Amino acid sequence: MKISTVSPLALPALLLALAAFSSAEAKKKVLIYSYTEGFRHYSIPTAVKTIRSLGKNNTPGWDSVHSEDPTDFNKDGYLDQFDALVFVSVSGKALSTKGAANMRKYIEAGGGYMGIHEACDALDDHAWYGRLVGAYFDYHPEICHATLNVEDRSHPSVAHLGKTWKVYDEMYNFRSNPRDYGKQLVLSADESSYPDPVTSKADRAALQGSPHPIAWYKEGGQLDYNPHVKVGGGTDPKKKDRKKHVEGKGGDGRSFYTALGHTNASWRDSDFQGHILGALRWVLESPTLRSSSPDADSSRPGSKYDGDSSSSSDDGDGSDSDDDGGASVSSSNANVGVDAGDSSDTASLQLLSGSGDAEPTSIVVNGHRVPYSSGNVHAASSPSSSAASPPLAAAGALQRWTSTAVTLAVGALACGVVAL
């Protein structure tokens, strides 16, 4: 195969199109919910601001809507626009019967969920929520310096950490063991690193298991339970709910919970921000969401799949604009390339063809190979660390990948470019 670097001067149509057109793949959309009926954490405003900022300033990111209005959940179909619900230190009843039912249906349909800190101390009159979050809150000793053990570094929520992580936070204890519902631990507390005079280690382990759970995830079966096994801690379905078939079942999406996030300082900490960023990205990458595929069932929740439209801007409903984040397409004089933080004057555009001057079969932009066919739209995925080269997308199909795709439309030519 011949590989030749092509000067943009040889592609005047490309320059003209780039000067007039740039479009980034639509971001996913999350609902940040922070209503409190019981204790209210002073760090909630900082938490909300941080989550929104992480979505705006990272690629891939997300758009956000923030709400503290329980009646939003009462609106039929309202939750379906979101790829994930992020509960930030929600406390107390939090939702009406109608709102809780709509949330349960959203989860059963494959919607995503992320619970942070006191989110495990809410909706305890709905056992399905206890199974979703993993376990209900029991108590915590005084806020303290503690050492956490990283249990599963393969998960993106902790991949940036070492074997241990020192934090200053509340060490939550739980009324049941989240592993009984298939939750996979990513963080556990080293109980020898801080004092807890309230109960004995053995008594705590009898309820929540050992090692002491702090953060966990699950894919699929979010509300499932074994009718022959009682887990306890308020998570077992009530007979009256089972008779009415409203106890909650299934839910093939993704969920994540972390007990951390009590202080403002924690939300400003880069390691904690990486924890939140990796966790929420993972939840949003669930294949059950409508935004994950152009062929997804229309009954699935999530933002509408839109492979080549701009992300939504702030229209007054609390959603974020994308004017200061993500990758962009740039062109300058005779230079054509993708601006992903590199200000090099050298264009990084190549045409790959079988031989001679034949029509190209692929295009390489900044090292990422993209299939090419006149008049069609294609996409390339972000290459994995283990892959020798990125996979090529099927002809004529623009697909959503784990990295934001930038689309260049050049007359009859359109090619998807991955910007890292």
Automatic annotation (TrEMBL):
Question: Low complexity bias: where?
Answer: 290-313, 326-340
User: Which residues lie in Acidic residues bias regions?
Assistant: 314-325
Which Gene3D superfamilies does the record associate with it?
A: 3.40.50.880
Q: What InterPro entries does the database record attribute to this sequence?
A: Class_I_gatase-like, ThuA-like
- Signal peptide range equals 1-26
| Region spans: Disordered | 228-255, 289-369
Q: Which organism is it from?
A: Pseudozyma flocculosa
- Print the keywords alphabetically: Signal
Is Signal one of the keywords UniProt gives this record?
Answer: yes
Q: Which residues form the ThuA-like domain?
A: 29-283
Origin organism lineage: Eukaryota, Fungi, Dikarya, Basidiomycota, Ustilaginomycotina
UniProt protein name: ThuA-like domain-containing protein
